[in-house]
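Comment thread on ticket #2218

A.B. wrote:
> Attaching the input chain for the structure job we discussed in standup.
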Amino acid sequence: MAQIESESAKAAIVTLKVQGEVDSKGQLHPLDMAPRASPSVPRDAVMVWAGPDGDQKLSSDSHAVSFVMDAVRHCKAVGIASHALAGRAGPDVGPGIVDLAARGGVKEFITAACTGRFWEREAEQ
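C.D. wrote:
> Ran it. Output below, let me know if you need it in another format.
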């Protein structure tokens, strides 16, 4: 979040639960929106950062899968560290698809998000 906000960008937290999500350290992160009520279409980029438990929850939720699929389909920058969700939503490695777990992944995602759309993916759809 700090890296994103240091670029004068606004990050919105999207969670499955209305009350927000609790991270592995027990800290509650209140939501800004839920995927079932707010699609990724009006967002400039999408980053999914979830640990193994969160990844399993997200990959089994059709709203979360659709949220990521729409971002991919609309050629947006997509940062993902969730392997199960990536498998269901289909963001293969490619232009503007960033593995957040890789070294420098967050910085690479920010660069991709600043680029805008990755129209070369449109031909692949």
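A.B. wrote:
> Thanks. Noting for the ticket: The mean pLDDT is 85.
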